[in-house]
Design goal:
The structure holds two protein chains of two kinds. By secondary structure, chain A is mainly β. Helix content of chain A is 0%, strand content 57%. Chain B is an all-beta fold. Chain B contains no helices and eleven strands. In chain B, the strands form two sheets. In chain B, strands 2, 4, 5, 6, 9, 10 and 11 form a seven-stranded mixed β-sheet that branches.
Amino acid sequence: GIQVEQSPPDLILQEGANSTLRCNFSDSVNNLQWFHQNPWGQLINLFYIPSGTKQNGRLSATTVATERYSLLYISSSQTTDSGVYFCAVARNQGGKLIFGQGTELSVKP
Amino acid sequence: NAGVTQTPKFRILKIGQSMTLQCTQDMNHNYMYWYRQDPGMGLKLIYYSVGAGITDKGEVPNGYNVSRSTTEDFPLRLELAAPSQTSVYFCASSYSSTGANRANYGYTFGSGTRLTVV
């Protein structure tokens, strides 16, 4: 099956710093999504981005499907950005996502 | 609009007991999923459904069963609980369009059920 690797596994930032999270995947995909799991365990969908670039406020994501990676950018980080960020992929667009191990982000005030 | 609702939020089971985790969504999503998340790990797909009456296995289906009699409900059944099933269980739903420009939208998770088997 598809392998999904995220890096770095852990990241500690000071409030206001920028960061880039990476997701590499081992095979062609038609579905890629980024999720944020907050410290209380709630999972929120951030982006559906099988290719191209999208932006939502301080967050943006870029997927280069031909090179099998995706990047999540967080600018001017805030303490509320803390939690675990997951990348998930699927071969087809109809779901059945395979999740990476996540990047645990801690933003210090 | 409640989204995806899971019950119960917490449960302790003894080895060999059975239980059903309930999941309901009110967004008229056609796809529904059950995942488990072990400590410090990502999510692993247990079962999924593309519509009422249709279910299929995910990565880790052993020890579980599901049914999808309506669009809204997707219960997960544990028949003989084992300590290896101690985990946090998440239900999710999404809308998948059809045709040449198929896409998977609105992936929404419930708040999770923390299950401990002792």
